[in-house]
Fold:
Amino acid sequence: MSETGPKIELHVHLEGTVRPEMLLAMGRRNNEALPARTVEGIAELYRFRDFDHFIKVWVLTTHVMRTADDFREVVVDYARRAAEQGAVYLEGIFSPWYRVHRGVPWEEIFTGYADGACEARERFGVEVRLTPDIDRVLPPEAAMDVVRWSSRFVDRGVVGIGLGGPEVGYPPEPYAPVFAAAADAGLAAVPHAGETAGAESVRGALHALGARRIRHGVRALEDPDLVAELVERNIVLDVCPVSNLRTGVVRDLADHPLPALVAAGLRCSLATDDPAMFGTDLEREYAIAAGLGVSLREVFAAGLAGALCDEGTRVRLAAAAARTDWDRVQAAAAAASAAAIAGSPVVSGSVRDGGRGSDGGRGSDGGCGSDGGCGSDGGRDGGADRGSGSGIAVAVDRTGVEQAPSMASTEG
Ligand SMILES: [Zn+2]
Structure:
C-alpha cells in the first residue's frame, strides 16, 4: 500500500490517462496517424496551453483507440498505476460518442472498458466502475444513445452517466429528460459543474439532472445558499486541484479553494481528471491536499460516501480505511507537499469554457457480472446499434473536431 494511504478516485477520464508510449503503439497497430511520432512529441502536445488546444489534442489523440482490446488495455494500464499509488476504487469516465462518430461500434467500446474493469480487479485488486460521459454539445437525442448503451452494461460495472464538455454556454437543463431516462435505468447522475461556470450551473446539475455527486464544483463557493444546499443534501464534490490549475480555474495551487470547501462543510474527494495530459497522479493530488491542511482520512470518507458501488464493496473499502494509520499517511503526504505544489507551473492563459465532464451512476452494484468473473456476457444484446444520429455534425464543429486535423502539421 502506498505511503499516502488508500485512495478512492471518482473523477478520471480514461482517455486522459493514456501514456504517450501506449498512444503511439495503438496508432501503429490501428494504422491511425497521430500529430506526433515520438514520446517526446506526444508529451509536448499534452502540455496544456489553453482549453481549445486541450480539446483538439484530446480529440486528435484519442481517435487511435478503436478496438475492445484498446479500451481494455487503457483501463488495465491506468488501474495498475493507480493501484501502485494506493487506489482501491476508481470510477472511470469515458466518452463513447467521440469514438462512435469515427466508426467504432458502441459494443466494442463498452465491452472493452467493461472487460478492462474486470481484469483490473482480478490483477490488481482495485475495484473499477464506469461512468460514460455525455458531451454538452451533443443533441439530447444523441445523448440518449449513451444512456441506452450504458443501461445494457449495468451488470458489467457501468453505474452512472456524466455530463461534460464546455460548461459555459451549455447549461445542464436540456439534458433533464436524458438523465431521467438514466435514473430509470438505475444510472446515477454525476455531471461536471461549477468548474468554469458558477453556481447556476451547479444548481442546474442538482435540480434538473438530480446529480448524486458534482465533478469539480469548486465554484459553488461563490454562493452560500448553494453551499448550504450541497451540505444538506450530502453531495460529494470530486475535486481535481492540478486540473484546476492547468485549465486556469485557479491561478496558484497554494490558493486552491479545497480547504475553504472543506471548511464550509462540503465533502470533497480527490482525483486527477486527465492525469497524462495534466501531468499529475494520485500521489501528487494527495500531497497537494495535505499541504493545504486537508485531512486525507476525510478525503477517503468523502470518496466512500460518493462512490456508486454496491454495499459489499463499500464495506470492504471502509475496512481498508479502518486498517490505515492516518496520522502516518497524513505526515507522508505532507512531506511531499512542497514539491507537489511547486512542481506545477502556473498556466498564464485562462480557460474560455468548461472542461469535459461525465456523470456517474447511482447505487448500482456494478462489477463483473453476478458470478464475479470476467466472463459475463451482459450487455452484449442489441449489438445492431451503430453510428450516430442526425444533427451531430453541428455539435462536432463546436467541439473543434472538424478543425482538429489542421494540427497534424505541428510535427513531422
Ligand atoms: Zn473531468
Notes: The pocket of zinc ion is lined by residues 11, 13, 164, 192, 215, 273, 355-357 (CB under 6 Å). Confidence is low (pLDDT under 50) at residues 346-373, 375-412. The radius of gyration is 19 Å.
